[in-house]
Amino acid sequence: MGSRAADGAGPERPPEDGTPEAPGEESRRLTRQQLFTMLAAASINFSSMICYSILGPFFPAEAEKKGASNTVVGLIFGCFAVVNFLTSLIFGNYLTKIGAKFMFVAGMFVSGCVTILFGMLDKVPNGPMFIGMCFLVRAMDAIGFAAAMTASFSILAKAFPNSIATVLGSLEIFTGLGLVLGPPLGGFLYQSFGYEVPFITLGCVVLVLVPVNMCLLPKYDAIPSKESFWKLFLLPKVLLLCFTIFSLSACLGFLDPTMSLFILKKFKLPAGYVGLVFLGLALSYSLSSPLLGLLSDKMPHLRKWLLVSGGLITALCFFLLGPAPVLHIESQLWMFVLVLLFLGFSLGMSAIPVFPEILQCAYENGFEEGLSLLGLVSGLFNAMWSLGAFIGPTLGGFQNEKLGFEWASAIQGGWALLSGLVTGIFYIAEATRKSSSSSLQNPPSDNEERTHLLGSET
To answer: Residue range 361-382: average pLDDT?
Structure first.
């Protein structure tokens, strides 16, 4: 895959026991190439999330005025995920042929243009025409997002082979910042200037970042690999980790079309203040992610417990979000925000360790290291996240319409509960199997047996 001297930062196979390398083996000081890579990745994390999150405070209500039901709104959100799922697999498989830098910049350009187009949808006639255009524009946005994020994950893993979880966790600050600023900014601009201005403003910001990233982002070349998605996906541990990604995304996606409507109806807040409620989730996630990433890299053996604990706490948070009617607790705004704070932390516990765990599993099963493998892993990660982002809002919107937010939220937490339980069982079984295998391969020596017998005789 080329030497590290040539690339500046090529991926290295981690130690077989999963322990991090000695501190001196990789310089803690960022090279210029690594710094520019982080800046480019931070820009796509921030811009994509702020464009995505501005929809939350006002789009579901606006879509209802244009003739879209709760279920249809969920499908509009879910359409993004379906297209993202398919294109992530394609882009991940052909990353080395298309080129990581070109894919990154082109995806960002498409996202900026589509964000501006989304601001024009209020001019479309109500009913089927509006709904159809929403689906079309969201599909185009998904293609751009899939290209940019697949390339971004791969480039980061290439540039930071020994600290990928720390880097991803640190960059989640910008993801959280986009999620934090998007809802209040979108709600304020919508309330002050109308539907078009939030999308046009942010779309132009994204387009300005395109030439900046063309200059900043280094070019990463790689040799295409013969490995396939199916070989990676069908590994038992990878299958389980994919379900973890899916469950987290489904839970988070459920909140997109439902939470703002619940806040508006339950707490009687204006649209401009609804975005502030979203801060609890975004702030706790973005602030905890760097620490969780550092912990994941420094102590890889803790990743399994982070995954299990994160799934179980996420399930509990969704049960309390409504809260579930069986608890007979009256929903209050302070309690709602507090649960969102814990939810953001628990999502970080499960999401941050997943990427390095999949990568480690691929190395252990003989996959060739390099940008091609990183493309497969990042494409698979984005695809599974997108699948959950389709099921979450689609099923969640239907459940919210039929059962109400309280029951729908409790049911949605079942994905995280199942993920946490299954992951815990898998890791316990794996540890038991390794322990049994180790004892069979290393039987006690004659001296150890003699010592044991003498000890028993006395």
So the answer is: 79
